[in-house]
Design a protein that fits this description.
74% of the residues lie in helices and 0% in strands. The protein has 203 residues and is mainly alpha-helical. The chain has one domain.
């Protein structure tokens, strides 16, 4: 096996409970739980240990490579304040910014005046247009694998707080209010995960 073969993450195959039954297997929730936490730990620790820019890039682009539905199969059902729960939220945030950078930057820019300290923590360039917000999202997710994971989580939390404030300000109706509240809840969960990581209890 070459070094490249060892470094390259392979796309896993996941089956829903119904698909497993169709293939003659059975669905074990305990195994699914272990798989969620195990893959999250392997991904983070392997990425941080490799010090390989190419691997880091591929991990940042994981959703592009394997699809959001595959990532959801892995982590979306885990509690928010766990490592797989945190990774799921970071990848969803990154994918949202990647797909609609104009919307993300509009909401972010609108929120800056309400929560300037969080804007500083998030670290977006000025003015925070689509390209700047997209770069910030890349930097935050790259920080999961390079540098201090707690800082990456705190930056993501700060980013969410700014977006939440902006969405509440420029959005209209109950849907916008619910969306702002949902992003604010994500911010609280990511900030809690940063504290758990620092204490060595984020699993």
């Amino acid at each position: 096996m070459t070094n490249d073969e060892r470094r390259t993450p392979r796309r896993p195959v996941f089956f829903s409970p119904a698909a497993l039954e169709a293939h003659g297997g059975s669905y074990d929730p305990t195994e699914a739980l272990h798989a969620a936490h195990g893959t999250a730990a392997v991904l983070v620790h392997a990425g941080r240990a490799a010090a390989d820019p190419e691997l880091t890039h591929r991990l940042v682009e994981l959703v592009e490579e394997v699809g959001l539905s595959t990532v959801a199969e892995l982590w979306s059902e885990r509690p928010a304040r766990t490592l797989p729960g945190a990774l799921w939220r970071l990848y969803v945030l990154h994918e949202w910014v990647r797909r609609v950078p104009e919307e993300a930057s509009r909401e972010y820019a609108a929120g800056v005046r309400f929560t300037a300290p969080n804007h500083v923590v998030a670290g977006a360039a000025e003015p925070p247009g689509p390209d700047e917000v997209r770069r910030l999202s890349d930097e935050i997710l790259r920080g999961v694998f390079v540098g201090d994971l707690a800082v990456a989580l705190e930056r993501a939390a700060a980013f969410c707080r700014v977006v939440s404030a902006g969405r509440a300000d420029i959005g209209e109706g109950e849907k916008a209010a619910q969306g702002a509240a949902s992003v604010l809840a994500m911010a609280d969960d990511l900030a809690a995960c940063a504290r758990l990581w620092r204490s060595g209890t984020l699993v």
